[in-house]
Amino acid sequence: MREIRFLLPFLRTDAKRIALAIVCALLAAASLATLPLLTGRVVDLALAGESGAIVSAAAFAAAAVTCHVVAGWGAAMLLTGVASRLGHLLRRTYAERLARTSLCELEAHRTGDLLSRGSAEVEEVADFAASGLSSLIVTVVYLIVSLAALTTYSWQLTLLVVSLALPAAIIVMMRFQRRADEAFGAEAEALADLTATVVEGATVAVSLRGRESREWWSRRVAGLNRRLLDAVSRTVRALNTLPVLTALESLVLAALLLVGGVLTAAGLITAGTVTAFLVATGTLFASTSDLGDILGALQSARARVRRFIEVAGTSPDTGSTASPRDGALSLTDVTFEYAGRQALFESLHLDLPAGSRTALVGPSGAGKSTLAKILAGLYAPDRGVSTVGGVPAPCAVSSTGGRAIALVTQEHHLIPGTLRENLFLREDADPVAGVAALGLGSWVEAAGGLDAPLDPAGIGAVDRQLIGMIRAVLTRADVLILDEPTASLDLETDTRLLDALLRARPELTVVVVTHREAALDLFDVVLGVEGGHVTPRARSAGAPPPCEESS
Questions:
Q1: Radius of gyration for the alpha carbons in the chain, expressed in angstroms and rounded
Q2: Whose CA is closest to 440, among 472, 469, 407?
């Protein structure tokens, strides 16, 4: 199965523990399988009046029970450790591959969808590995060992049990498998969609205060809830296939009593043998019922793995990394379009020299932010290539090991902690120098200093953007792309901070998306973005033409 092949690399480091757990599960199953046989033996001894032998048989039964409990506990403990490490590796892999997923793919999902998948899926797979896997091994092995042991007692009764129970059980389990394969996957998908929608609603709660928006949102959630209930109903119908085994058990027990009585009367078997088969059959059907529940959990875990693979297993690798020779940005024959829409840029060529300062201007929706993300390597072109210093932008790393291109947007994510902790983007960063470079010392003092606690929920847009600008000064990237990072600030502060940033990091290649005309004097090149075209609008004397277009 594809799911097993995907998980195998994560389990290789625990191969010895898994092998030992399987051995423990085999011992647990084998010891459980001996109990019906010992029960039958006790009955024969009791009928023969051998009280001393009964004590010995009971001692063996007690030893078998002890072995079953201890071995089963050992298998469960070993697999719990394996499951813990598996969950850790899956979460790390998910985070790493999600970080390499294209920004277009991330933005195509609703708020929280990918994150909810990255937690719920991993948790269910780990839970099954911790508990369901040992139960599955014990149950399957018990069924096999019990039938093999019963054959040594009476091949006639074994044949009866197998001929009556096996074909019907196979039909029931196959029907369950067909229903469950679709049902559990649909339930996992519906639950993830509903969870993501609820999370999305929480993030935009302010915009849902109006009556119309609340009603629309309620209808949307209600629709997804109905979809989930329908998926749950299909899961329940799949599980309801298994109770058929109860009726089958009654039929087999009746047949055993009838045929066993005849064989006992004929002297071919003993009463203890019939007792052993009756006890074993009851346990066999109970184990088969348990097996149905375990297979249901297995189907759910498989569905979770498949959903996990959709992101973690298919996230594109950016390839081998390399350091660019300088900070020169280049787009070569770049075409980019959003799914199902006309191309935003077509056959675009753009060259920005290392150390240049470029402003991108144009009306809202013209594609300025999209162009910034293509230059940063966060949007993959449909055709063509984006490079920095001769290296493909997604693969470019600076000489210090971080990304060669840093993108700063209007949204600045903060973490609970101090202001200093929110500015530590690298070990050798000096927040004090970054604050001084931008002339924000008085603002930091008013906030309580760098070590003052910071509550992300209480930080307004202006303060967030000031923190974002300090982070921009402290970045160790070779190229800095700013997408209206100071849009919430007044014009004077905006211009002052941009000027201070450019002076503080003269070695960087800087691209700024802006709509403020007053700031354009700070840049060597101004590019107008509109209608899929990128054209020079104003630039310093002597600066080379930045772009050519063949669209």
A1: 34
A2: 469
Please give the Cα distance from 52 to 136 (Å, whole number): 38
User: What is the number of residues in the chain?
Assistant: 551
Give the DSSP H/E element, type plus range, for residue 418: strand 417-418
CB 404 within 8 A of CB 390: no
- Listed residue (247, 244, 263) closest to 159, CA to CA: 263
Please write the tens of the pLDDT for every residue from 413-437.
777 788 888 776 555 667 888 889 8
Task: Write phi, then psi, for 524 (nearest 5 degrees).
Answer: -75, -40
Which tokens sit at 512?
């700024």
Q: Which tens digits make up the pLDDT trace of 51-74?
A: 778 888 888 888 988 998 898 888
HEC assignment per residue over 118-173? HHHHHHHHHHHHHHHHHHHHHHHHHHHHHHHHHHHHCHHHHHHHHHHHHHHHHHHH
DSSP labels for 258-287?
HHHHHHHHTTSS-HHHHHHHHHHHHHHHHH
Q: Distance between CA atoms of 548 and 150, rounded to whole angstroms?
A: 84
Q: How far is CA 122 from CA 7, 126, 269, 310, in A?
A: 11, 6, 53, 13
96 exposure class (CB count in 10 Å sphere: 0-12, 13-18, 19+): exposed
Residue 308, CA distances (Å) to 87, 103, 187, 190, 264 in order: 12, 18, 15, 15, 57
